Amino acid sequence: MQDVTNQEARAPAVVRIVGVKIPVDDRRVGIALQDIPGIGPKEAKGILTAVGILDASLVSELTYQEVLQIREVVDRDHVPAAQGDGLVDRLMVALQDYHDGWGSTGLLEDAVHDALGHGLIVRRGAGRPSNAEHYAPLCFEMWRRTGDPTALVLAARYLLNVAARRGLLQVAGKEEQAQAKCSVCGDEYRGYSNNAWPMNDGTCCDDCNEAAVIPARVRSIMEHARADA
Ligand SMILES: [Zn+2]
């Protein structure tokens, strides 16, 4: 597993635990965990003990390793089995963590690798692949060759795009579900938003993403890779 430091690294503003955004501030961890539905003072104390975090610890002092351990305990003890972590959920969380400034590309790479290797997301040989299905492995290959984290992030986004179209996206936050206006075609759409870079700085619908944004982005990565060679 490569462990390239998050090149957009900055102090994380939130930590997501089972989809709940907990602000990274100077609250005690045991208090902040009670933002999660179903977790009260007793459950929060149990989590701290299981992970080995002191009662006085603040959210702003958490390491990413501790965040991962907390999630493991919450997943194991406090989340109904039906919500268990599938490949798609893991990928979504890894991408959100990366954008939030947590951790490294290593975990994102593992999540993309596992999602790609699993026929559930990218089917091979069953009809013509969509653009997103086609570009997800291509971008991952580009990341492997160039170490450009943009390519890794793109691979993750294309996989999520494919998953969304197949109704496999379980952990989409409210902001991804809200109705939005596409910055490329101007249509209203609902569902997972796509970053419209390099077309513009906004977000776009799935159709524009596949038809215009992804091809433009892949061209841009190819040129970048050539320039670096
Ligand atoms: Zn559009």
Fraction of residues in H or I helices? 40-55%
End-to-end distance = 23 Å
Structural domain tally: 2
Helical/strand content category: mainly alpha
Kindly report the spatial arrangement of strands forming the biggest sheet: 1-2
Question: What radius of gyration results from the CA coordinates?
Answer: 19 Å
Total helices: the number is: 9
The arrangement of helices and strands along the chain is EEHHHHHHHHEEEEH
Provide the fold topology.
Elements: E1 14-17, E2 20-23, H1 29-32, H2 41-51, H3 64-78, H4 87-100, H5 105-117, H6 131-146, H7 149-165, H8 174-177, E3 179-181, E4 188-190, E5 194-195, E6 203-204, H9 206-228
Antiparallel strand pairs: 1-2, 3-4, 5-6
The chain binds zinc ion.
Question: What would you say this structure looks like, in words?
Answer:
There is one protein chain. It is built from nine helices and six strands, in the order E-E-H-H-H-H-H-H-H-H-E-E-E-E-H. It is mainly alpha-helical and 229 residues long. The chain folds into two domains: 19-78, Helicase, Ruva Protein, domain 3; 87-228, no CATH class. It is elongated and about 50 Å long.
